[in-house]
Amino acid sequence: MIVTRFAPSPNGPLHLGHAYSAVKAHDLARAAGGRFLLRIEDIDGARSRAELADEFRRDLEWLGLEWEEVPAQSTRLDSYEAAARDLMARGLLYRCTCTRAEIEALEPTIGPEGLIYPGTCKGKAFDPSRPSALRLNIEAALAETGPLEWEDERAGVVTADPRQFGDVVLVRKDAPASYHLAATLDDAADGVTLVTRGADLVFASHIHRLLQALLGLPVPRWHHHALLVEADGRKLAKSRRSGERGYGLAEMREAGEDGRIVAEKLRLDQIPHGISLSRYPPDGT
Ligand code: GLU
Ligand code: ZN
């Protein structure tokens, strides 16, 4: 049974890129007689807005999709804490009190997803008067798991290379888990077998595969799809307010556009509103 999911964070309105992703995940499940899940990723309490989750449901309905909703992340904090405790007890996590400014001052290497943490706090006593995050000791983790692979439906079998991102944060200073820990645990708990999302999150799959091995979780397959890009070649993104500049689903819905037609066009890779599709994998379409 194929189980896919759409897992939006309620921190800004959805845009056409989200519609593309949701339609893709929905259709991959439906074509195989499987299940399509909606999971609201509201781990980021300070930035999450409950009314946006309602808006997301209206957006999916407008696109003509049917889904099963699973519990939101804010109801699953115990499972994140238990996993973090387990990894901590095995010596795989360490406390980091560094601020972003302190890390930047060390002029760290820039990896595929931003700064690579230089390991300042690794193996050191931490100052309990400062807020701390928990980071994964990647070397210690890989020593436990050995080499790993993961399978992308479109790119084939990939060697997991979590080292390139450094010691990632699994428990944030300001949230009970990071995206990596929460999403990996949730996908396993929800029985997701085909993690479907944009190619901008390929990097995360290297880390998630490692977490699955460490936590003894089932290993899904992945389907990373091409991204929608604006005329300047940059991807649609909440950080660029793409959902409020004419590419927003709520905007289109309120302007009276027919969401089912939008979804049909996306299925045919006919992307409306002057948007185009990036290539993924790079030698693919
Ligand atoms: N919540 C993430 C986002 O909105 C998506 C995570 C995922 O699909 O793994 O970007
Ligand atoms: Zn640190």
UniProtKB/TrEMBL annotation:
Q: Which family does it belong to?
A: Belongs to the class-I aminoacyl-tRNA synthetase family.
PANTHER family named among the record's database cross-references? GLUTAMATE--TRNA LIGASE (PTHR43311), GLUTAMYL-Q TRNA(ASP) SYNTHETASE (PTHR43311:SF1)
Q: What's in the GO CC field? A: cytosol
> By its UniProt entry, which InterPro entries does this protein fall under?
aa-tRNA-synth_I_CS (IPR001412), Glu/Gln-tRNA-synth (IPR000924), Glu/Gln-tRNA-synth_Ib_cat-dom (IPR020058), GluQ/Sye (IPR049940), Rossmann-like_a/b/a_fold (IPR014729)
Gene3D superfamilies assigned to the protein according to its UniProt record, in alphabetical order = HUPs
Q: What is this protein called?
A: Glutamyl-tRNA synthetase
The record's Gene Ontology biological-process terms are:
glutamyl-tRNA aminoacylation
Q: Which UniProt keywords apply?
A: Aminoacyl-tRNA synthetase, ATP-binding, Ligase, Metal-binding, Nucleotide-binding, Protein biosynthesis, Zinc
Q: Which organism is it from?
A: Aurantiacibacter gangjinensis
Positions the record marks as coiled coil are none
Lineage summary: Bacteria, Pseudomonadati, Pseudomonadota, Alphaproteobacteria, Sphingomonadales
Picking any one GO molecular function of the record gives: ATP binding
Top-level taxon of the source organism: Bacteria
Q: Which NCBIfam families has this protein been placed in?
A: PRK05710.1-4
List the Pfam families hit by this protein, alphabetically.
Answer: tRNA-synt_1c (PF00749)
